[in-house]
Amino acid sequence: MIQDIKRWKEYSLLNNDLKKELNDMNDEQLNDAFYTELTFGTGGMRGILGPGTNRMNIYTIRRANYGYGKYILMEKEKQHSVVIAYDCRRNSLTFAKESARVLATMGIKVFLFPKITPTPELSFAVRHLKTSGGIVVTASHNPPEYNGYKIYDNSGCQLVPDLADIVIKEIEKAPDYFDIKVEEYDVLVKKGLIEVLDTEIDDEYLKKVKSISLNNDMNKKHFKVVFTSLHGTSSVLGQRLLKEMGYNYIPVKEQMIADANFSTVKSPNPENGEAFTLAIKYAKENNADICVATDPDADRVGLAVLHKGEYVLLTGNQTGPILIKYLAENRKLSGNNVLFNTIVTSPLGAMVAKKYGIETVSTLTGFKFIGEQARLLEGTGKKFFFGYEESYGYVASDFVRDKDSLQALLLCSEAACYYKNMGKTLVDVLNDIYEEFGYYQEKLVNINLAGEEGAKKIKRILDYFRNEINFTIGSLHAIAKEDYLLQKRYEGEDVSKISLPKSNVIKYFLEDGSWFVLRPSGTEPKMKIYISAVSKGLTESMDKVKNIEENVLKLVNKIE
Question: Is CATH 3.40.1080.10 what the domain over 205-437 is classified as, yes or no?
Answer without folding.
Answer: no
